[in-house]
Amino acid sequence: MHVFQPVKPEDIENGAYSFVGEKIIISSVKGDKVNVAAAEWGGVGYVWNKRVTFIFVRKSRYTKDCIDESGVYSISFMDQEKYRGALKYLGLVSGRDEDKIAGARLTVNYDEGIPYIDEAREVITCRVVYRQEFEKECFIDKDIIEQLYKDGEYHILYVGEVKKIMLR
After folding, report:
1. CA-to-CA distance for 12 and 113, rounded, in angstroms?
2. d(Cα 78, Cα 106) in Å, to the nearest integer?
3. Is pLDDT above 70 for 4?
4. In Å, what is the CA distance from 32 to each residue of 28, 66, 71?
C-alpha cells in the first residue's frame, strides 16, 4: 500500500506558469494599437489536444475588444519587485484613454504579430481557440457572485492555444 503525505498547494506551485499570487501583463492589439492589462487570474493546461493558457477579462475592458478583434494575446511574466509601479499603473488606467505602455515605461516587441512586453522574464504567445462569458446561473458557489460580481459585470474566459514560450 502506498503512503501519501498531504502538502499545501502553495508548497508545490512553482515556475513562471503557475499564475499564483503573481501579476501578469496581458497584451493584445486592435488595428495598430497595442493594449496591455495587468491581471492576476489565469493558468495553463492541456485541453482539446492542445497546450493552452486561460485568462479572464472583464466585459468592459478595452483588452476584451483587442483580443476579440485580433484573436491573439500574450502573457508576460514580470519581476514583481522591479516592476511593481508599472504593474500598479497598468491596473489603474484604461488603454482607451491613454498609452499605458508609455506611461508604465515599458517596451513592446512582437513575435509573429503578437505583441508582448520586452522587459518580461518569460512570455507565452497564444491564439484564441475558445471564449465564454460567465453567467450568473452557472455559479454553483453563490458566494463568488456576492464577493466579486455585485456589479453584475462578469469576466469572459479566453482559452488560448500556446504558440510559443519565450524565456529570457
Report:
1. 35
2. 11
3. no
4. 10, 10, 14
Comparing CA positions, the residue from 120, 130, 137 lying closest to residue 160 is: 130
C-alpha cell at 150: 455585485
Report residue 74 as a C-alpha cell: 500574450
Residues 2, 6, 8, 9, Cα dihedral to 10°:
30
Instruction: List pLDDT tens digits, range 67-99.
Output: 999 999 999 999 989 999 999 988 888 778 888
CA distance 25 to 143: 28
Q: Which residues contact 22 (CB under 8 A, 6 or more apart)?
A: 40, 77, 80
Q: Selecting from 3.40.190.170, 2.30.110.10, 3.60.21.70, 3.40.50.410, what CATH number does the domain 22-167 have?
A: 2.30.110.10
* In the chain, where the domains are located: 22-167
